[in-house]
Each structure stands twice: as structure tokens, then as C-alpha cells.
Amino acid sequence: MTSSALSRLSNINRHLKPTVSHSCDSDGATGMPVKISPEVSNALSCGRAVVALESTIISHGMPYPRNLETAKEVEAIVRTNGAVPATVAILDGIPCIGLSIEQLERLANLGTKAQKAARRDIAHIVATRGNGATTVSATMVFASMVGIPVFVTGGIGGVHRHGENTMDISSDLTELGRTPVAVISAGVKSILDIPRTLEYLETQGVCVAAYKTNEFPAFFTEKSGSKVHCRVDTPEDCAQLIDANIKLKLGTGILIAVPIPKEHAASGSLIESAIQIALKEARDKNIIGNAETPFLLARVSELTGGASLASNIALVKNNAALGAKISVALAQLRESCNTGDAQSVS
User: Fold this and answer.
1) CA pair distance 74, 234, nearest whole angstrom
2) Is 327 left (phi over 0), alpha (psi -120 to 50) or beta?
3) Which of 62, 154, 216, 259 has the most CB atoms in a 10 Å sphere around its CB?
4) 37 half-sphere exposure, CB direction, 13 A CA radius
5) Which positions are catalytic?
6) pLDDT in tens for each of the 346 residues of the chain?
7) What molecular function terms (GO) are annotated for this protein (predicted)?
8) The whole model's pTM is what?
9) Which of 129, 138, 128, 120 lies closest to 56 in space, CA to CA?
């Protein structure tokens, strides 16, 4: 058997392993720790490009039916650019990697009735057979579990403003420090403390790269005033970076920050003003913890007449297109390495 065939067999075994039964339901029926859709499972087994997608943006990011429309559009963009979308959620206590149209519709209709699920919430939601919409940290956990190296989101969480006093720091940052998945985002949400977030990521040993720029983007706007030490200019550059991180077994994720397209960037001063108002309202109403970000984003959208929501959707779509291209480049890189190995053996 050639080296290439052995590599492919190993790839198949690695991706099918997570679906092996490990638990039993109360009626004695065998259950699965995770459920991978046939489309995603087949793509992983064949070494094709797959892009993980979070589901909090569906349940908590915008109202129905716009959330469902956006979810379908984002998945379509991933497919158009050559990759298979794998939206992640927990439904009836089962972590699902790759959702059907019916499951997307169910999640969109559930809205905020689905629990916002970070890493800490996974076991509880599964144990109680609940429904959870995965945040960045939880999506990274499941993507890594089944071998999906690229994950697309809008923006990650970070250190909240005044976080030096409140210690309100998103688990997204610690997840990036311990889970080897590349996260494609529009940087850090501008409602957060961006300089402190970057400092925290540095402490976690996370490589932060900016796409076609030397400055870290601020979610709604292209610039934050904070520089990065790593710049990537093509999907192939990103693939090389991800491949090196995985081969070196550094054990950390990579954050690839992509500026929002110029034609969709809302006025930075308008949004910053709205953020200050929303932050004060959140403090006055004692809205803290994981309830704060959804409140702030919704309030900022109201204050900006929907401009921030339109920008949010535009940047997610932009990230999805680039994330798919990166995933395709990474799959091609791995295939060329396998081919080279086979030729050297023969």
C-alpha cells in the first residue's frame, strides 16, 4: 500500500473516530458523543475543505427570519468558494456538526430560547438534553474534536472595558490559547477593550495575524490603532501559517483578523458614540456577564439605525468567503504534501 493510501486511510479513521458510540440513553439505546452530518463526515474523510461556523449569531445575533436568511447565505458563500460548511449547535443534548436546513430553521425559531453555549456550558446542556447555540469557544472545541482546522465567525469576544476591575474576560481568548483551530474573524468587537485583548492573547501564546494590513481591525471599522506582528496577504499565506502551527504541535489557535470591506464600514465615530451610550445603559441596568454583549450589540444597532447590524452581516459574509478559500488552500497544501511523500517512497 502506498504512503498516499495509508495517509488517506489514517485521515478517514481520524475523522470517523469522534462518532464512535460512548454513551447510552436511559432506555438503553446507544448514543453518540457528537453527530456529524453526512456531508461534513464525507468531506473530512476525503480530505476536502471544511469550514466550521458558530450558531450564536443565528440564535442571539439578529431577529427571525433575518437570522435564518443570513445563516443560509453564509453557508452558500462557503460552498461557492469550494468548501463544505459545518454549522455547530447542540440540539436536544446532542452536539451537531453540520446542520440540515430543518435544523437551521429550528435554531432560528428558537432564538434566545437556545442557551448561549461557551465551553463551560457544554456538559450541562448535553446532560440535560438542552439546546445550545455555540459561541466561539464551544465551536472551537467541537471543530478541534472532529478535525476541522478552520472556523469562521464575525468577531471574537475579549477583555471587556474596565476588565482590569471586573475580570470580565471572554473564554474565547483562553480557548485560542489551548485549542489548535484557526479563527477567521473581523478582529475583536469594538464594544471591548482591544489593546488589553491583544495583550491577553499574547500572554496566551496566540499568533494574531491581520489580513492584507498591519493593523488589527475593530470589527465594524477597519482600524483600531493597534498594530500586529504578523501579516498575511493571501489564502495560501494563511494556509502555510495554519499548517506550520499544526505540524509544530504548538497546541494553540490562530486568530486571523480580516478588516470589514471598505464599502460596508459604518462611520467609526457614529458607532463609538453609540457604544458609549450602550455601555452606560448596561451599567445602569446591571447587565453583566454573557448577557452584556447581546444587549450592547442590539442597543448599538438601534442607536445607529441598523447600520451596525448591516455591517455585521457584511463582515460575516466576507469572512466566510475568505475562510473557505483558506480551507481550500490548506486542503490543497496537505494533498500536495501527501503526493510528495508518496513519490519519495516510490
Assistant:
1) 21
2) alpha
3) 154
4) 20
5) 54, 189
6) 444 444 554 554 544 444 433 333 333 333 558 999 999 999 999 999 999 999 999 999 888 999 999 999 999 999 999 999 999 999 999 999 999 999 999 999 999 999 999 999 999 999 999 999 999 999 999 999 999 999 999 999 999 877 888 888 999 999 999 999 999 999 997 788 999 999 999 999 999 999 999 999 998 888 899 999 999 999 999 999 999 999 999 999 999 999 999 888 876 668 778 988 998 999 899 988 778 877 888 898 899 888 888 888 999 999 999 999 999 999 999 998 877 665 565 5
7) hydrolase activity, acting on glycosyl bonds; metal ion binding; pseudouridylate synthase activity
8) 0.87
9) 138
Q: Which residue has the cell 446507544?
A: 30
**What secondary structure letter does DSSP report for 259?**
P
CB neighbours of 274 closer than 8 A, spacing ≥ 6?
299, 300, 303, 304, 308
Residues 233, 81: Cα–Cα separation, whole Å:
18
Residues 6+ apart with CB under 8 A from 102: none
Contacts (Cβ under 8 Å, ≥6 apart) of 287: 281, 295
